[in-house]
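Q&A FORM
Asked by: J.P.
Topic: structure of Alkylhydroperoxidase family enzyme, contains CxxC motif

PROVIDED:
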Amino acid sequence: MIRYLLNKMLMAMHRRYDYDVRYLQEILQTDLPAFLKYLGFQMMAAHSANVPAEPLFAARVRAIIWDDCGPCTQLVVNMALEARVSPDRVRAMVEMDLDNLPESTALVARFTELVLAHNPEADELREQICALWGSKGLIAIAYSISSSRVYPALKYTLGYGHACSRVQVNDQTLAPTRSAEAQHG
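REPLIED BY: S.T.
REPLY: Here is the structure written out as tokens.
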């Protein structure tokens, strides 16, 4: 019965976001305790502390682009739009167009890129983030960055990661780009 209800939840997610949930259904059907642990992980991924949605989505979008070339990125884009982040800002996040993001959102996008590249320049930005939102905000951003990377890893490990695709932001199709600047440090 519990598997049936959890599968209904997954199918609702599939319909809501047009997202392939087969890898999650496989976990649910194969190992219920493992799936319940996944649900616990969802609580961590949703943690926001005192950070507004837009900077958190900047972290999630930039982090997911490091590990995914389409479907998971599209899911995060759709969730950002659903959270009322403007399409122009979401587009700027996907394209790493920092000039078209508010300063705090651009800060988080750049920080995310530097963190994922293990670039020591992230240290300066970390201090700026703590000045804006404190240590609790930094933890929320850390959770956004790290948790976003789990989904593509699960999909590809279980054999559900496939062809790359472009990302839709309302009526515009984009090719997600990875910041080359962050890799040099």
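FOLLOW-UP: The chain has two domains: 1-45, 49-153+162-183.
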